[in-house]
Structures are given as C-alpha cells and as structure tokens.
Design goal:
By secondary structure, the protein is α+β, with helices and mostly antiparallel strands. Helix content is 42%, strand content 20%. The protein has helices spanning 13-29, 69-74, 117-131, 133-149, 154-177, and strands spanning 33-39, 53-59, 77-81, 94-101, 104-113. The protein has a 5-stranded mixed sheet with strand order 1-2-5-4-3, sandwiched between helices. A hairpin with a 2-residue loop joins strand 4 (94-101) and strand 5 (104-113). The protein is globular and about 40 Å long. The termini are far apart.
Length: 188
C-alpha cells in the first residue's frame, strides 16, 4: 500500500517550514549553492496542496550532487538520486531528496545544476500560478478530485495531473514572454 495522499487548504505554516528547511539546506550546500526557491503548490498563497513543502536548489555546474548525501541524511532526508529507474522515471540531472516526519512526507528537495531546463519550468509555473489565482484554484480542484481516486496511488495521482501541468507550463511560458523577460519572479 502506497503513501497516503491528501490535499488540504493553504496553511501559512508552509512558508515558515520552507524558511526553516532553507536555512538548514544553505548550510549543507554551502558555496555550491547558487539559489534556493520555495516551489510547488505550498508556495502559492491560498492554493490547496499536498502538505509537503517543495524546495528547488540550484547549484554550480559540475558539482557531484552525491557529495551532499551524508549531510542530507543527517537532516533526515532520503537521498533518491535521479530516480531514473522509478515506475514514473525521474529526470536526468534533477536529484531528489525526501524527508518524512512522524511517518508523513514533510518536505521534498529538487537539486539541479544551474541551467537545467526544469529550473525555468518550476519557476515560471510558480510565478504564473501566483499571478493567476483562477488557474491555481482549478489546479487545486483537480488535485483534490485526483486524491479521491488515487489516495494511495502516487503514480496514478501524478499521471492524472500530468496533462494539466504540461498545459500550465506552456501557458506560463507564453505569459512570461509577454513581459519581454526570460523569467519574471514574484516575491516568495
């Protein structure tokens, strides 16, 4: 039986949880750290979400991510690598760490070298949803519906939202181009 998936109303605590974890992660990644971001649904005020804080870490190119595994384990993270052999394969160049607290997923960290394509996708989607509360509400509603069907099936849940996420990234990318900038960042 898989991990229980739930969607809850927005909690202000998510921002504080991000700040606490970000502080710890800055110490782990040290000089290799370029930027750290609160991403995912918990970073969008008012949006329904899984109560799991997603963090994106950008590090300098060429650094071996595995060298951070011992320190991440000390913080309680499972070091999952690129998850290339998973049922829903990960992405080459995106390293994944997950942390459980009291038997429940608490935080997920995505580590990419500067320039990895997922960085811009994560950030433009964040900015778009933060600026388009109607789209964030639709996405939250879909996730709520999916958890009724896939409450113990993370693969089914992920596949169920995949098409909408891809469409949102395309819309977000087009929206971002209207500003004539590579990437607009809303304050986190």
């Amino acid at each position: 039986m898989g991990r229980f998936i739930e969607i809850v109303d927005y909690l202000a605590d998510w921002s504080q949880r991000y700040q606490r974890e970000a502080s710890l992660l800055q110490d782990v990644f040290g000089e290799a750290l370029v930027r750290i971001h609160h991403i995912g649904s918990t970073s969008i005020p008012g949006m329904r979400a899984k109560p799991i804080v997603d963090i994106l870490i950008e590090i300098e190119p060429g650094i071996d991510v595995d060298r951070f595994n011992p320190r991440m384990r000390q913080l309680g993270y499972d070091c999952r690598g690129e998850c290339l052999e998973a049922v829903v394969p990960g992405t080459p160049g995106r390293f994944y760490f997950s942390k459980n607290v009291d038997g429940r997923r608490y935080c997920q960290v995505h580590v990419c070298h500067v320039g990895h394509f997922h960085i811009s996708e994560f950030l433009v989607l964040h900015d778009y949803l933060k600026s388009h509360s109607d789209e964030a509400a639709k996405y939250g509603y879909l996730k709520s519906r999916l958890t009724k069907r896939f409450s113990r099936d993370n693969v089914g849940y992920m596949r169920g939202k995949d098409e909408l996420v891809k469409r949102l990234i395309l819309r977000a990318t087009e929206w971002n181009k209207t500003f004539g900038k590579e990437r607009l960042r809303c304050p986190s």
